[in-house]
Amino acid sequence: MPASQKTARRPLLVTSATLLSLSLSSLTLTAAPAFAAKPSPSSSASPSATPPATMSTVGGEQLGRPGTQAALGSDAPVLPKGISARSWIVADAESGDVLAAHNAHWRLAPASTLKMLFADTLLPKFNKDDEHKVVPADLAGIGAGSSMVGIKEDEKYTVHDLWLGVFLRSGNDAVHVLSAMNGGVKQTVADMNEHAEELQALDTHAVSPDGYDAKGQVSSAYDLTLFARSGLQKKDFREYCSTVRAKFPGETKKGKNGKKSRSSFEIQNTNRLLTGDSGLDSYQGIAGVKNGNTTNAGATFTGVAERDGRVLLVTVMHPEKNEHNQVYKETASLLDWGFKASGKVTPVGELVPPKSAETSGGSAEPTAGPGTTAPTSASGGAGGKSVAASASGGGGGIGIALGIMGGVLVLVAGAVFLVNRKWPLRGRK
């Protein structure tokens, strides 16, 4: 944006069609009612490349408008060029302020980013040391071509093993086993939809627990960001989504001497901003959260990163550019912009708190449960060890401190950043 179009003390509201100058005093954010009616799921997650003329206004009236929404101060950096995603959002993870957004409430296919809702719903339900022996029924109904971590029938896995499979390899087999432990896929999907409503994620309708393409299954960049923000208040969630690699239990086999033994193999996180990839460096300060890719959804991603004490959440859905790692490149560009723009823009909305936080006066604490008592390291159930992201380079975000134990990087207990335990009140200034 040319400098001549900026006016001192007058932010710019950027829309898809026009640039409108508004004074700071006239810019108001109107939060949607906490109990707004939930729209019916569409038969197709993305029927066209054109966003609806009207969308949900949860989090503020501007977030319901199509196109790009940003209120730039006179010294704010311009939004990055080349962002092709159908929908995206940049938000402060602590305050909940939405710094900029593009079709934030467009209901699109979420792919495996929906696993954030799955994890946020089920993590508190199980003790991570519990063991489960897999039976054929546990793996029934997994979609063709699904991403898998390699779970085998008649083998035992700890809950911890299964969560490593969900977060690192995006394993639909691990999701289905945990769903079976929760009473089945139908019960788990019902629990997920109930939890989404509690989080005021009203664009979301889950049909499958793993994000596999299903008729009527939708979410939005806004809702996915709510799931990430809620999940990051759970210690186990933070540790799993920041783990780069870990050992996973293999098959039990009988050796030549007749003795049975069980090997393990290494799995690596599929989040390329965490691990890096050919032509893509790991992002400095990244600490998760979840990527996804299906035929219907294309690429989707939610990432969280910390820089100079500020924590940002960015969600990108359905980039139109069909280039390798495009969803990560666009996320990195938006994160870079967000860190430079912090304090120089007027928020265009907010990430709303859960219903229970509002009714309890905004001081709700994350629910303690069996899944929240994490050990100091995310070690595999078969004696494996995991490696967390480096604090000095990619993956050092959210205050995740590292120590060295036996030559292996491990998370230091008690040194993990907590994302705003007191939920912000709606309508605050």
TrEMBL record:
Signal sequence, renumbered to the chain: 1-36
Gene Ontology terms: biological process: proteolysis
Single annotated GO MF: serine-type D-Ala-D-Ala carboxypeptidase activity
Segments passing through the bilayer: 398-419
Domain Peptidase S11 D-alanyl-D-alanine carboxypeptidase A N-terminal: 81-318
Pfam families: Peptidase_S11
Keywords from the UniProt entry: Carboxypeptidase, Hydrolase, Membrane, Protease, Signal, Transmembrane, Transmembrane helix
Top EC class, one word: hydrolase
Keyword Nucleotide-binding appears in the UniProt entry: no
Database matches in InterPro entries: Beta-lactam/transpept-like, Peptidase_S11_N
Entry EC no(s): 3.4.16.4
Region feature Disordered, mapped onto this chain: 36-75, 249-270, 349-388
Biased composition (Low complexity): 36-57, 360-388
Keyword Transmembrane on entry: yes
Protein name: D-alanyl-D-alanine carboxypeptidase DacD
